[in-house]
Amino acid sequence: MAHNLAQCQKLVKKAVDAGAKALFLPEASDYIASSATESVGLCQDVSKSLFVRGLQQAARDNSLLINVGIHEPTDPPSDRIKNTLIWIDKEGEIAHRYQKLHVFDIDLRPNGPRLKESDSVQPGNEIVPPYPTVLGKLGSLICFDLRFPEPALRLRRQGAEALLYPSAFTVPTGKLHWEILLRSRAIETQSWVIAAAQCGRHNEKRVSYGDSIVISPNGHIVGRLDHVEDLDKEKVDTREPDMLTVDIDSKAVDEVRRGIPLLRRTDVYPEI
Fold it and tell me: How many other C-beta atoms are found inside a 10 Å radius of the C-beta of residue 144?
């Protein structure tokens, strides 16, 4: 976790040097463990986490908004933990928190991985209303939530102008679905989509696909970073963290929504 904090601090410096208003970091930026037992054992309350406290200090020192995915203990404590996304404001305070709704349980054997996040992670039970920022109203979701349109549509109805999908996508599912699902969520909600993604090998069991992307409200990719297949395999484990800088224009949301008004027939399907 000390190494991961140092990597994030490098990105803070890059963000400040670029004049960014906010820094978006991936899901599980504090750690990705090799087992459920290890994941639970590493988890700390934010008040004790050197990783979180380090980022809070970085936010204060640089007057920078920081959005980051971490792990937190359940309350009351249990044999599972929470996968959360927190907003750290310019004063270094945690101003907003979202707990991942949909945990990542897949079995792609024999040609892919078997992962069961539910062994160690307690799913959330709330779609948290959008958080107002200098970039507009931002709706928080995490990784596997991407596969379900309902939370994104709810956040749109609650006023979201951008959706966040910090992730650590697997390589097989990243190849198949990452870009197309992100663009779909942007198009159907007419919102910006900001998807900060981990990239490369974490341990002997886990490799993340990467491909950090920002998508405009009309589904256009306005910026992206490499995915794991683009990288020199010898440099994947040693390379410096990379950052994408994008201008988020809230006027683009108004223009797209005015040009193509999506008037849903809620009298026909009120559950959406």
Answer: 22
Model pLDDT for residues 115-168, shown as the tens digit of each residue: 889 999 999 999 999 999 999 999 999 999 999 999 999 999 999 999 999 999
Helix/strand/coil for 154: helix
The DSSP code for 22 is: E
Structure tokens at 45: 């309350």
Residue of 43, 100, 117, 137 marked catalytic: 100
**Packing angle, helices 149-157 and 171-189, rounded to 10:** 30
CB 161 within 8 A of CB 152: no
Which residue in 8, 43, 143, 199 is the catalytic one? 143
Is 10 in the active site?
Answer: no
What are 68-113's pLDDT values in tens digits? 999 999 999 899 999 999 999 999 999 999 999 999 998 878 877 6
Q: Which sequence spans correspond to the domains of the chain?
A: 2-259
Beta bridge partners of 270: none
What CATH architecture applies to the domain 2-259?
A: 4-Layer Sandwich (3.60)
Q: Is residue 24 over pLDDT 80? A: yes
Considering Cα of 258, then 224, then 68, then 85, what sign does the dihedral take? positive
Nearest to 123 by CA among 108, 106, 144, 139: 144
Tokens encoding 70: 């971490």
Answer whether 58's CB lies under 8 Å from 17's CB.
no
143 carries an active-site annotation = yes
Q: Which of 27, 72, 117, 161 is catalytic?
A: 27
* pLDDT tens string 200-235: 999 888 899 999 999 999 999 999 999 988 777 666
